[in-house]
Amino acid sequence: MIYTVRVKFDSSDRFVMDGINNEIEISVCSAPVKGKANKEIVKKISNYFKVKQDSVTIIRGLNSKTKVIDISLK
């Protein structure tokens, strides 16, 4: 499943999913330095969908606030 993720960098623990448009809005606490924010995003998404972290892949937007991810539901 392909989703568009919009990332906000603040301390709130926010996760909003729009199932119709396949969009997720997520807030992270980690700074976007050395991939820490991307790791936190993958962790939160894998916990939400109850899949392993290896099943969540960032396809586009590694250095952007808008990312495209692929979740393989095995």
Q: Could you characterize what this model shows?
A:
It is globular, with a radius of gyration of 11 Å. By secondary structure, the protein is α+β, with helices and mostly antiparallel strands. A 5-stranded mixed beta sheet has the order 2-3-1-5-4, covered by helices on one side. The chain starts with a strand and ends with a strand. The mean pLDDT is 91. The chain has a single domain (2-71), classed as 2-Layer Sandwich (Conserved Hypothetical Protein Mth637, Chain: A). It has one helix spanning 36-49, and strands spanning 2-9, 15-18, 23-28, 56-60, 66-71. It is built from 1 helix and 5 strands.
Question: Beta-strand level of the residues, as a percent range?
Answer: 35-45%
Helix content: 10-25%
Number of domains: 1
Q: Classify the oligomer.
A: single chain
Q: What labels would you give this structure?
A:
single chain, 74 residues, alpha+beta, Conserved Hypothetical Protein Mth637, Chain: A, five-stranded mixed beta sheet, 1 helix, 5 strands, globular
Write the layout of secondary structure elements.
Layout: E1 2-9, E2 15-18, E3 23-28, H1 36-49, E4 56-60, E5 66-71
Parallel strand pairs: 1-3
Antiparallel strand pairs: 1-5, 2-3, 4-5
Summarize the structure.
19% of the residues lie in helices and 39% in strands. The protein has 1 helix and 5 strands, in the order E-E-E-H-E-E.
